[in-house]
Amino acid sequence: MNSIDNIKGVLYQLERWQSTIEIALDHGRHTHTFDDIVGMVMANRILFFSFDECFFITEKIVYPQYSVFHCFLAGGSLEALLAQKSYMLHVAKQLECKYLSLAGRKGWMRFLESKGWMHTCSTMYYPIEEKADERRGRRTEINGQVTTRN
Description:
41% helix; alpha+beta
């Protein structure tokens, strides 16, 4: 398979997971758009792993004392996500990372602590200023219902 076929394959997988990625991005304070993710994957700034029933979007974070293999977006079946732990550990070791880390909602923290993960810190946001046009068109999911604010 040549590099053009590889690129087409990655773009196909990103498109396959697009709606799930966009829902996950909505929970992340809108730090990225789907197009941002695609551009960063294509530029090799982040890594995208797609499996039959789940995906991970990761980055290597380099601190002065060690590196972390950080998952900032994931989606799909919970069982499928958990089943990929050994593969993700393998990739993290190849990248010479000391830890896996992930960003997620509180429910992940409660669930993953029983799987050997440890809570290190929580990230909280306080809005400094948000203009009306920044709120316009924001998609929100509540109890499975997607709504858009105007």
